[in-house]
Design goal:
With 140 residues, this protein is of the alpha+beta class. The protein has a single domain (12-136), classed as Aspartate Aminotransferase, domain 1, CATH 3.90.1150. 36% of the residues lie in helices and 24% in strands. It is built from four helices and nine strands, in the order βααββββββαββα. The strands form two sheets. The chain has a seven-stranded antiparallel sheet with strand order 1-2-3-6-7-9-8, covered by helices on one side. Strands 4-5 form a two-stranded antiparallel sheet. Strand 4 (57-60) and strand 5 form a beta hairpin. The longest helix has 18 residues, at 23-40. It is globular. It starts with 7 loop residues before the first strand and ends with a helix.
Length: 140
């Protein structure tokens, strides 16, 4: 079975964020960092070289594949922010919140937006909170 390439490590979060070139994206990153700390009650950990993760959970698929991953996290990618919300897989449950969020896109387990000014941060907090709650109740 293939091993995950993205793993937790001891890289410094502030060193990583200080290298975000776009000044607004860097400022937004620090706001997201504080929001996720508040919602999760967890300290951030670097996963790979570009993801900041909070907390962890163990998953197991029907195929037998299993592993550990963070409860929620984000990455200030060059093009946009990637917010890791495992609840995106169940968009129907979150449709009301997504409708109130603002300018964004979703993927299988990611929420994408360009800057915090494009979205309602209170709705983002609710989405993160719901995703974390769902994963904490997850039974592999």
């Amino acid at each position: 079975m293939a091993e995950l390439k993205t793993k937790p490590n001891s890289a410094n979060i502030n060193d990583f964020l200080s290298k975000v070139e776009n000044e607004q994206k860097r400022a937004d990153s620090y706001k997201i960092l504080e929001l996720m700390k508040k919602v999760t009650g967890e300290e951030p950990i670097m996963w790979g070289n570009s993801i900041i993760g909070f907390g962890n959970y163990h998953y197991k698929y029907a195929s037998g594949r299993e592993g550990d991953w963070f409860l929620t996290g984000f990455s200030p990618r060059k093009q946009n922010f990637s917010i890791y919300l495992m609840s995106c897989e169940n968009e129907k449950k979150l449709n009301d919140l997504f409708a109130k969020l603002g300018k964004h896109k979703t993927g299988k387990s990611c929420l994408y937006f360009n800057k915090l000014a494009d979205i309602d941060i209170r709705v983002l907090e609710k989405l993160i909170r719901q995703s974390v709650e769902d994963l904490k109740n997850y039974q592999p």
